[in-house]
From TrEMBL:
Recorded superkingdom: Bacteria
Pfam family, one: Arf
InterPro entries: Gliding_Motility_GTPase, P-loop_NTPase, Small_GTPase_ARF/SAR
Region span, Disordered: 211-257
Membrane-spanning residues: none
Name of the protein this chain belongs to: GTP-binding protein
Low complexity bias: start-end ranges: 212-251
KW Nucleotide-binding (keyword) present: yes
Keyword Protein biosynthesis tagged: no
Keywords: GTP-binding, Nucleotide-binding
Length: 298
């Protein structure tokens, strides 16, 4: 679900690279990161999620990537590892605006591809989505290997919906950027059709990770939240604010502070850890906000 940041005049959209283990999801994401110019992308970050590695970064597409005068920033995510806990995938797919399904072209991985595709359909269904309702492209990876299955065979086995597909190699980069840019165009088309008035505002999601400020307290900077913390998570006590209300206001020469969610919240027992990025001008610092959950009687 794309989110509007009115303060920055940005729309934040989310794309997830999904597929079976060892198919090349992480390598594909890293290739995209390395090919984009630094002025168009943020830092590549890695976080441990349910024993697997979540990789993510954001970028703004060059050219006409605006919607109603708002710049669109895409957040790319994947979870890398031989086996990934379903809870991790569900968390990462929540609020996705587009999906790249990375299939392994090796003949012996056909069953793994089909199983992963079935999982993707199931997870999207849980959010009221499907492969045809959300922009999706297929990436037939490792197609440069000598024993790779023919594209026609992969299409027959994995693409009954006739989604847009690309023959790729995440090692050489063949087709990876082309597939992603096709998906980006599709997401942009959908956002322009809806318009900013129909896209959710990120401000309403702030209270899921931060308690409302008292009436007498100074206004907080806008929080860019993507994706939201689980709706069932409710802290028993408000977390300590990142910046004390008693701190002096920035001088005219100083850049104001901004606070952004740097990645998906990670649940561990009765704790939820939310990575946050604090920015002031060209300076930034990443911290982790830990929320303790519990049940209370009212």
């Amino acid at each position: 679900m794309a989110l509007v940041n009115q303060a920055k005049r940005e729309i934040n959209a989310k794309i997830v690279f999904f597929g079976p283990g060892q198919a090349g999801k992480g390598t594909s994401l890293r290739h995209v990161f390395n090919k984009l110019k630094p002025e168009f992308r943020g830092a590549l970050k890695v976080m441990s999620v349910q024993g697997a590695r979540m990789l993510f970064f954001d970028f703004t597409p060059p050219g006409d990537g605006n919607v109603d005068g708002f710049r669109v920033r895409f957040h790319l995510y994947t979870v890398s590892g031989p086996l990934v806990d379903p809870a991790a995938w569900k968390m990462v797919l929540k609020g996705a605006d587009g999906v790249v399904f990375v299939a392994d072209s090796a003949p012996q991985r056909l069953a793994d591809n089909q199983a992963a595709l079935g999982q993707l359909v199931e997870y999207l269904k849980g959010y009221g989505q499907s492969l045809t309702s959300i922009p999706t492209v297929l990436q037939y990876n490792k197609s440069d290997l000598a024993d790779a299955s023919a594209v026609a065979e992969l299409e027959q086995q994995l693409n009954p919906s006739r989604l847009v597909s690309f023959k790729t190699s995440s090692q050489t980069g063949e087709g990876v950027l082309q597939g992603l840019m096709a998906l980006v165009k599709s997401v942009l088309t959908g956002l322009r059709a809806k318009g900013t008035d129909a896209i959710a505002s990120g401000e309403a999601l702030q209270h899921m990770v931060e308690s409302p400020a008292p009436a007498a307290a100074p206004a907080r900077p806008a929080v860019e939240a993507h994706p939201a913390a689980p709706a069932s998570a409710r802290p028993t006590a408000a977390p300590a604010p990142v910046q004390s209300p008693a701190a002096p206001a920035p001088s005219a020469e100083e850049e104001p502070l901004s606070l952004e969610i740097a990645g998906d919240p990670v649940a561990a027992g009765d704790l939820i850890r939310v990575p946050l990025t604090i920015r002031s001008g060209d300076r930034e610092k990443t911290v982790v906000l830990t929320l303790s959950l519990g049940l209370s009687e009212e």
